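It would be a great kindness if you could assist me with a short task in structural biology. A protein sequence and the structure tokens that stand for its backbone fold form the material at issue. I should value your view on which stretches of the chain appear to form regular backbone elements. The record follows directly beneath this note.
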Amino acid sequence: MSTNSPNPRVVVIGAGFGGLAVAKALGGAPVQVTVLDRENHHLFQPLLYQVATAGLSPANIAQPVRSILRRYSNVEVLMADVTGFDLEKKLVLAGGRSVPFDYLVVATGARHSYFGHPEWEQFAPGLKTLEDALDIRRRLLLAFEKAEAETDPVERERLLTFVIVGAGPTGVEMAGAISEIARETMLRDFRRIDPREAQVILLDAAERVLPVFDADLSRKAESQLHHLNVTVKLGVSVQDINADGVRTNEGFIHARTVVWAAGNAASPLVKALPGTFDRAGRIQISETLNLPDAPHIYVIGDTAHCPGKDHKPLPGVSPVALQQGAHVAENILAQIEGRALKKFAYWDRGSMATIGRHRAVADVHFAKFSGLMAWLAWVFIHLIFLMNFRSRVSVFLTWVWSYFTRAQGARLITGKK
């Protein structure tokens, strides 16, 4: 693409759901679009926990950004790590490269937040990237391997204890999946241990699991977790995490594998923009999704503090980012053409969370249901939102195979020793 194009330059930082929605909506429009991301692939984050629990391989939920956007001749993709901005000169700084822009869209997502205790991360990894998922998968599978070779029953028990901190959708999904792996998938794989002896403990300081869901669905979700032999501890706060386990206000839990699913913080890159920030590091934006003091800069997705109809910040989920991305593209074209900008209104289609094989809860406003029907609805929706046909087919076939055989085909231990 020629950098001397007379068309306005739109730079999109981040190739997640929001960033790709902007780029696609501007594909073919009279603008020059540059998408910057530190990775070369788009990641379908809602299924990331299935990579972490060996249900899917990374290729099932990731696709190269270039292949997604190759049909749009006015869109270019650069793999670069953005380090800052020169807002006066309208430049995005990416290492030794400076990328000029007329309109900027920041969609850099979020990382896990340890509430002022970053030292916990080495003992309790979060789940945001493929690297995170593969690290958790490695720790999870290694725990069973080490338990098989362990002769000390106390240490074996600690190796077979898995703690998930945070009972939101990610924590609930992780807990259910780990329990199913132990009690079904690996049941006949070992000779010295019985994987069914594994203890899966789900902790949260909240008073119920899935607190963003209807209270009745939360109770049903907790019941389904108990059916999977997951120990749910609510109203429990974490005070420390180390190599031996988790210290809580109710005592110490000895565990060699801990997964963090308790909180998010916006990408620190957004701090380089002018504005006001909330406790999660998200920048406050206007009703048209741009910055009040810089109307040519838009922020969307997990990085933005965007109030909904109830005046609470919209959740960091893919439907929000997708709708915001399409809306930003419309407003950028309106700015170019001198038209009035439109206010953003989120259309909430509902929420779902899966708990295990044929177990889930769903709230689609006109109906609230759980169990097999909710699980089938969850499967259908996630297949629809996968990026390409190949991914849909491969994931569907993998799920069908796992459903009938109870086998997980991606149980590979890779990465650093």
